[in-house]
Design a protein that fits this description.
The protein has 352 residues and is mainly beta. It has 1 helix and 30 strands. The strands form 8 sheets. Strands 24, 25, 26, 27, 29 and 30 form a 6-stranded antiparallel sheet that branches. Strands 14, 15, 18, 19 and 20 form a 5-stranded antiparallel sheet that branches. A 4-stranded mixed sheet has the order 6-3-1-10, with no helix packed on it. It is rod-shaped. The N and C termini lie far apart (179 Å).
Length: 352
């Protein structure tokens, strides 16, 4: 009997045959990686109307040149997504409304997409700060002989302007083609301006490195024509017939619109020896012998300021004595120049 010799098959090949495998598969490829990039913002706190810039600080991909990588920026405010042009490294966006916004960047090499890394991606968009009010929200003016209103001064008093972020400049546009710089980096200030009759709402514009914020409208200022006359009255002393009781003339004044400002007072005395007018400047009486008003010194008129409570008082009057007729003529003048009746006066005979 003839013996047949068999060679031993390689174990790997034998196992393949046993499993019914007729070929060896190719090795698997590694999955492609998404591009990577890092980004920074030039500010995390702005006012509505201002602009933020996103800057790319690094960009990389495993198989595509950087210039071919596209970026899609989401600004977080519901505006259309901005597609960044290939090769660009910074992009800007203006935020029209307030709120907290989060910026995101998506990178794509044409095959694989992934998010970039944004450092501190949240932006606080707020309204420009400050209380934009007036020293007085209503002021008054008067008219000329033709009935045309004069300009009158109002005082704008904005406060709390210097908060975070800080404004480098704050401007007021008055609405009459004039613009005033309130004050650089000031928290509060006082700015006068002249207005005619009407209602005025100046705009206040804030500026810093992020650009101009949306202007804010100041609280309204009303300018009215004061057509009324003020009122004046004397406060009579306990003994009006006693000369010493008139060393000072006192009284009150009122006005329903612009308010009383001053009281003009003139003092006379007369007897058989003649008529006299008092000089408040020299504290002496001047005998009237036909002088015109222009020939008399200005100090024969005492200008007494009206206090906040409406009271006023003259400078001291000397030289009054028994036997004289004494007269005082007060005229109230309001803050726009209207005056009370010039026919109001008080006469008294000094009996002691």
């Amino acid at each position: 009997m003839k013996l047949v010799h068999r060679r031993t098959l390689p174990a790997l090949f034998a196992a393949a045959l046993t499993a019914g495998v007729v070929g060896v598969s190719a090795p698997a490829h590694a999955a492609e990686a998404a591009p990577t990039g890092t980004y920074t913002l030039d500010s995390n706190a702005i006012w509505a109307g201002q602009t933020v810039t996103v800057t790319e600080t690094a960009l990389d991909d495993d198989d595509v040149e950087n210039a071919a990588i596209s970026r899609v920026i989401s600004w977080g405010d519901g505006s259309p997504t901005t597609v960044a042009e290939a090769g660009s490294t910074s992009w800007t966006h203006t935020y029209a409304t307030t709120g907290t916004r989060t910026i995101g960047v998506v990178l794509s090499d044409g095959t694989v997409s992934g998010p970039g890394t944004v450092t501190s991606p949240t932006i606080a968009v707020t309204t420009a700060p400050g209380t934009l009010s007036w020293q007085k929200s209503k002021v008054f003016t008067t008219t000329d002989s033709a009935g045309t209103p004069y300009l009158t001064e109002a005082i704008f008093t904005p406060k709390d302007l210097a908060t975070t972020p800080v404004a480098t400049h704050v401007w007021t546009e008055w609405g009459d083609k004039e613009i005033s710089l309130l004050k650089e980096q000031a928290s509060s200030t006082t700015v006068p301006h002249w207005f005619g009759e009407g209602v005025f709402r100046p705009q206040v514009r804030y500026e810093n490195a992020q650009g101009n914020a949306t202007p804010r409208v100041a609280s309204p200022l009303t300018v009215e024509v004061d057509k009324g006359k003020p009122n004046v009255s004397l406060k009579l002393p306990a003994g009006p017939g006693k000369a010493s009781s008139w060393s000072t003339v006192r009284g009150s004044a009122s006005d329903s619109q612009s308010g009383p400002d001053v009281v003009s007072l003139i003092a006379y005395k007369w007897n058989a020896g003649g008529d006299y007018i008092y000089n408040f400047g020299t504290k002496k009486w001047i005998k009237l012998v036909g002088q015109t008003w222009a020939q008399l010194p200005a100090s024969v008129e005492n200008i007494a300021p009206v206090a906040a409570n409406g009271t006023w008082a003259s400078k001291p009057i000397a030289g009054l004595a028994k036997g004289w007729h004494f007269e005082v003529w007060p005229v109230a003048i309001d803050k726009v120049g209207n005056f009370s009746s010039t026919e109001y006066y008080f006469p008294v005979y000094l009996s002691s």
